[in-house]
Amino acid sequence: MLDMHMHSTSSDGTYAPARLARKAREAGLTHMALTDHDTVDGLAEARAEAKSLGVAFLGGLEISAEYQPGTMHILGYGFREDDPALLERLAEVQRARAERNPRIIRKLNDLGLDITLEEVAAASGGGLLGRPHFAQVLMEKGYVATRQEAFDAYLAKGRPAYVDKVRLSPADSIAAIRGAGGVAVLAHPLQLKQDDDGVAAIVEALVGEGLQGLECYYRNHTNGDTEKFLALARTHGLIATGGSDFHGTNRPGIALGTGEGRLRVPPECWEGVVEKLKESD
Ligand code: AMP
Ligand code: FE
Ligand code: FE
Ligand code: ZN
User: Are 169 and 66 in contact, with CB atoms under 8 Å apart?
Assistant: First the structure.
């Protein structure tokens, strides 16, 4: 069983990288890729643990690109994890996050909610701070009943405590990954919030920027979704990848390997990335 999309405490997952590797083994995974948002900090720890457990490991990351109206995330796999240009790009994004977080706190305080950045940092497990950590604290303090309610009431785009963050353009996101020798893949295409023609047009444009793969298998895809995206990938000579987008207890109901239950990521997905990496050697 494979899973090529998951998060640790280095971003907004709830399990530390080594613990995540153990969870992966327990869930029956034979292959795992860690894909934290905007950071490579968890990769060494997760890789060491996966190796000791006999789980094949691929280093990854997930970059949030500039895009409207939905979400565009670009996954990277197999890049040089010490590439100076990639690390500088990620540092820029991390600085933008660090500037944004106090502004979210200020908005929440202005709305009358008692919450501090220290509390949010304590909820993060030591990695990058993101909105899920704000949601966690708002829930723990009883302001909302669920994390989702924290987004719906305060943190989601268009809600009163939302603060946008500076992002890389799609082209720069792909270039950052490929410049470091990695494979660039468009994550969860349904989150683009486009109809079929819209997704097809975006994929075509991204292929022009160097996109190499499409996440055809995802935690909540129907078979129809998966088939549609596999066909689109074939049209453009893209490899197919897949994963659960596991975030630990931050997102209940999602399991490593199986997502919301029917996810099955076939071995060709892993092999496709490995082949692409060989081509670029
Ligand atoms: P950030 O990177 O700080 O903007 O946080 C992005 C993360 O917040 C995503 O990876 C999701 O886990 C979560 N998220 C974003 N929007 C929503 C939403 N409307 N409802 C629930 N979770 C969300
Ligand atoms: Fe996330
Ligand atoms: Fe994502
Ligand atoms: Zn993700």
Answer: yes
Give the tokens for residue 166: 């500076």
> One digit per residue, pLDDT tens: the chain, 281 residues?
999 999 999 999 999 999 999 999 999 999 999 999 999 999 999 999 999 999 999 999 999 999 998 999 999 999 999 999 999 999 999 999 999 999 999 999 999 999 999 999 999 988 899 999 999 999 999 999 999 999 999 999 999 999 998 899 999 999 999 999 999 999 999 999 999 999 999 999 999 999 999 999 999 999 999 999 999 999 999 999 999 999 998 888 999 999 999 999 999 999 999 999 999 87
pTM attached to this predicted model: 0.95
Determine the Cα–Cα distance for residues 140 and 188; give it in Å rounded to an integer: 29
Q: How far is the CA of 38 from the centre of ligand 3 (A)?
A: 11
Q: Which residues line ligand 1 (CB under 6 A)?
A: 12, 37, 130-132, 148, 151, 156
CB 42 within 8 A of CB 159: no
